[in-house]
Design goal:
Oligomer: single chain
CATH topology: Immunoglobulin-like
Helix content: under 10%
Radius of gyration: 13 Å
Number of domains: 1
Largest sheet: 4 strands, antiparallel
Number of helices: 0
Number of strands: 8
Structural class: mainly beta
Distance between the termini: 21 Å
Mean pLDDT: 75
Strand content: over 45%
CATH class: Mainly Beta
Low-confidence stretches: 6-17
């Protein structure tokens, strides 16, 4: 039986003061294997994916200002996951439910 992890799909432009922004697209919906995250930002950030109990599934330091990440989600349980972007001041600048 195939499992599906449902996503909430949005394109987000987040402004955090004068100096920070993230444009973010997350797909496909639903995801069964690979999750694609396309991003544009002007500062370095840490991307973290956690489950609903805040257990960390994925972490990556992102220094490229524009890019695409492909993350294997085929081994995770069928539940909600959260994408969090943290800037260099440990401030959450984006939290997205997938």
């Amino acid at each position: 039986m195939k499992k599906y992890i449902s996503l909430i799909l949005l394109t987000v432009l987040l402004s955090c003061g004068k100096d920070s922004f993230i444009s973010l697209e997350v797909f496909p919906n639903p995801v069964t294997t690979n999750l694609t995250i396309e991003y544009k930002m002007n500062n370095d950030n840490i991307l973290i994916i956690t489950d609903s109990q805040n257990n960390e599934y994925y972490r990556k330091n992102i220094t490229d200002k524009k890019g695409t990440l492909i993350i294997d989600m085929s081994e995770v349980k069928n539940q909600f996951y959260y994408i969090k972007f943290i800037n260099n001041k440990n401030t959450f600048i984006q939290i997205k439910k997938i």
